[in-house]
Amino acid sequence: MIAAQTRTEVLTHHTGPKTQKQRGIITFGIAPNRQNPFAHAGHDAIFNTWRRFSRQVLYWAPGFIAGYYAINWAKHRNHYLNSKAGRAETAEHEE
């Protein structure tokens, strides 16, 4: 290493070619004590949840409704078949 080289020149030499310095780039920041990261978080959470729910409900609700009615029908049918009237009905068909 040559003594005249600076630390950045050595790193630049090893990491890639030298590039020109950027000009005209302006960055802005805000002080940490002026930030309010949870501003309107509760309000936004409620309305964002409702918006997402209302857009997706037509995709999954018909399946749940059909499943509910199928299970409900099966429970009532099972209850009937295990009752006195249901056993009498199935006994007529088996004979």
Automatic annotation (TrEMBL):
PANTHER family: CYTOCHROME B-C1 COMPLEX SUBUNIT 8, UBIQUINOL-CYTOCHROME C REDUCTASE COMPLEX UBIQUINONE-BINDING PROTEIN QP-C. The chain crosses the membrane at residues 57-74. It comes from Ophiostoma piceae (strain UAMH 11346) (Sap stain fungus). SUPFAM superfamilies: Ubiquinone-binding protein QP-C of cytochrome bc1 complex (Ubiquinol-cytochrome c reductase) (SSF81508). Its main location: mitochondrion. GO terms for cellular component: mitochondrial inner membrane; respiratory chain complex III. It is a single-pass membrane protein. This is Cytochrome b-c1 complex subunit 8. It is found in: Mitochondrion inner membrane. Belongs to the UQCRQ/QCR8 family. InterPro entries: Cyt_bc1_su8, Cyt_bc1_su8_sf. GO terms for biological process: mitochondrial electron transport, ubiquinol to cytochrome c. Keywords: Electron transport, Membrane, Mitochondrion, Mitochondrion inner membrane, Respiratory chain, Transmembrane, Transmembrane helix, Transport. Pfam families: UcrQ. Signal peptide: none annotated. Component of the ubiquinol-cytochrome c oxidoreductase, a multisubunit transmembrane complex that is part of the mitochondrial electron transport chain which drives oxidative phosphorylation. The complex plays an important role in the uptake of multiple carbon sources present in different host niches. Component of the ubiquinol-cytochrome c oxidoreductase (cytochrome b-c1 complex, complex III, CIII), a multisubunit enzyme composed of 3 respiratory subunits cytochrome b, cytochrome c1 and Rieske protein, 2 core protein subunits, and additional low-molecular weight protein subunits. The complex exists as an obligatory dimer and forms supercomplexes (SCs) in the inner mitochondrial membrane with cytochrome c oxidase (complex IV, CIV).
